[in-house]
Amino acid sequence: MASAPVRIVIVEDDDELRELLRRRIERAEGLQLVRTFASGDAFLEHIEELTAQVVLMDINMPGKSGIDCVREAKVVKPEVQYLMLTIFENPAYIFQALCAGATGYLLKSTTTEELLEAIHDIHKGGSPMNSAIARLVVNSFQQETRQQINDELLTDREKGVLDGLASGLQYKEIAAKAGISTETVRVHVRRIYSKLQVNGRMEAVRKVYPGR
User: Fold this and answer.
1) Do 79 and 106 form a contact (C-beta atoms < 8 A)?
2) pLDDT attached to residue 8
């Protein structure tokens, strides 16, 4: 039996982009568009009645910003996952959004394939980020003291996989770089999450880079 589609809400003030996102979602298999909103304020007015699982959220909008909107919405419906879509490659915005409760952060220039993959990833417990965004995050982390991981906690191979995750690489890219199969990467990732006692990429990275 086919699984139920992932229910999506779009919050975007640009009419043209909102329509583009709407078409992308409606044409995608396994996704169901619940509703679209032109502002964060309008979204918050209707949040109680929405059955969304993933919200695509703009940052810079008239009225309440996307970051403030996520912060308030998380209190009402903490189970909903928020994927920020923005033109801003700014570490400050990224960290503010993640601290507010966002689980993923993509640029608006993201391709349709990458966007759809990110939606399914975030719904399954991942924290998708564009490679460009991930590099900004990693570079910012490297400005601070990196937490030392006990050699007995993670193997050298697992550390390499974790570094790949922190750099925003996909499983297949990590596999190619390490000369192993994608399925082996998945096994390592599961072991990393288990050893670090985390549920996803962002939590693992935060545990390695304290303070984030």
Assistant:
1) no
2) 97
Strand 81-86, strand 104-107: pairing? parallel
Q: Using CA atoms, how far apart are residues 163 and 91, in angstroms rounded to an integer?
A: 19
Q: Beta-carbon neighbour count of residue 193 at 10 Å?
A: 18
Neighbours of 48 (CB within 10 A): 8
Distance CA 45, CA 28 (A): 27
* CA-only gyration radius of the chain, Å: 17
What is the C-alpha to C-alpha distance for residues 105 and 102, in angstroms, rounded to an integer? 8
- Domains along the chain with CATH numbers: 6-135 (3.40.50.2300), 144-208 (1.10.10.10)
Cα end-to-end distance, the chain, whole Å: 40
- The pLDDT value recorded for residue 15 is 95
Please state the φ and ψ torsions of residue 33, each to the nearest 5 degrees: -80, 120
Q: In whole angstroms, what is the distance from residue 105 CA to residue 79 CA?
A: 17
Residue keyed to tokens 């909008």: 61
